[in-house]
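ok so heres the complex, two chains, lmk if somethin looks off
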Amino acid sequence: MPREAEPSLNERAFVVQALQEGLRVDGRAFDQYRQLELKFGEQYGVADVTLGKTRILVKVSAEVTTPYTDRPFDGIFTITTELSPMASPAFEVNRPTETEVLLSRLLEKTVRRSNALDTESLCLVAGQKCWSIRVDLHVLSHDGNLIDVSCFAVVAALRHFRKPDTSIEGGHLTVYTPAEREPVPLSWLHSPFCVTFSFYGEGEITILDANLLEEQLRVSSCTISLNRHGEICQIAKLGGTPVEAATLLQCASVALNKVKEFSTLLDQKLAEDAKRRNKGGLLAELSAENER
Amino acid sequence: MPLDTSTYNLALLRIDGRRWNELRQLRGQIRTQAAADGSSYLEMGNTKIMCVVTGPSEEGKRRNQGASSASAAGSGSSTSASATNAADILVSVVVGGFSTVDRKKRARSDKRIQELQATLAKSLAAVLHTHLFPRSTISLSLHILSQDGSLLACMINAATLALVDAGVPMTDYLVACSAGSTSSHSAADERADPLIDLNNQEEQELPFLTVGTLGASDKVVVLVCESRVQVSRLEGMMVAAADGCVNIRAYLDSVVREKGHRMVAEGAVEKGASMAMDIDV
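and the predicted structre for the whole thing:
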């Protein structure tokens, strides 16, 4: 089983010593994120997010299927993560590493279990037809903090996504092409974001957005998912060095501020994208005028 | 199946008649399996777990496929023991098909189980002195016999008992307790009471979290919350859970001391000067 190359003893000592002196190797402040960039694709539901050297691509797709028999009024919503060897030699195809399992569980808890997407709205004909929304997440480059970036990318892509419009007449379901009817957005209830804290020393040094090297050297980590209304969707501190309870409570309030920033950024990007796509409505589209 | 929790406000009694800060009945045994290096059986109400520890022993030929591992330095990614000169901790969780009301077959590769295994392995790595056993493995096998809420908390407590029995040196007991909050996330009333040690019915209905602390201190090793809850409720819930942990630690300690006491009385171990525990026969 291939493993990530471990940092050398010198690197270890240097990074940890620097952190104890209040410095990070890349010169950031302890609570500073790297540059977060979000690009939407030509199609609806494609988001390409980069945070420093970490890059993640998310694609959302929808199809009509039959619902699960035990939940006839709910649509299907799945998130699949793929950590390919392209991102890091430690990842293998068809063999989920612990990182991947924990990442997909976290996204599941943050986005799916917190009911960010109203799955009941995906139902078309109870017990017979529903939308199946599928989110595919690909890690293109791994330089730490996969969780926060993945969550941001998934939420961005889902909010950007439009599913084809449908109508039911006399038990007959019609799915319209984008040319016939404008696709409709998903029924989105709230936007949760993850913020991951890394701890060093005896748990007294806390940093945000650790890069790969810092991630390998941390003694413990804690991921808090919130929406901007201050609702915790999930907290995961899965073991590691003990941390004072007061520190964790402080982390929660820091996380809330960060989440508000993420939320504003995403709203702004979505508005920009909507503006770019809107070429003046139906009038502009139906005009027969040509550019000469 | 929604549960009517509105009755709580009438008498401040929970569905099973407890008050907010009462634990369910705890019942624990250690050294239940004669053949194992360490073993325990713990009941927290109707959640029943059996834990068997093997090791510290020399590293086997192949790592157990289904189990999650962590070593002392293991943080983000699990590192192998050979590189860190500390014992590897392997945890495997077996969920009995008969443990819940509806008999469901859970695959060993279920992500939820894998997450539980990883959580246990990493949190135990933080409290055990694994550096004393380089190039060796401590493997834990937890069998869930019955589930009725606070599953993770019960697993952590059972694992601690078994590791005490196996004689693996540790900083302090790793104890865990769950805590919830009355009224669901949508109701923004400030009068919500925290509750501790939730049962399955309460877990279905209320937001809850699991806190694992190092002994009776307020150092948090594990903090898992899987439901939506206002951030302002977090503090109350964590304090209540930490309070529960103190009580659970006292109980686990009494189980260990009682067993030690009985073993000395039966002459299974000599009361030697080397024993740090003060056992009065």
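quick notes: The mean pLDDT of chain A is 91. thats all i got rn
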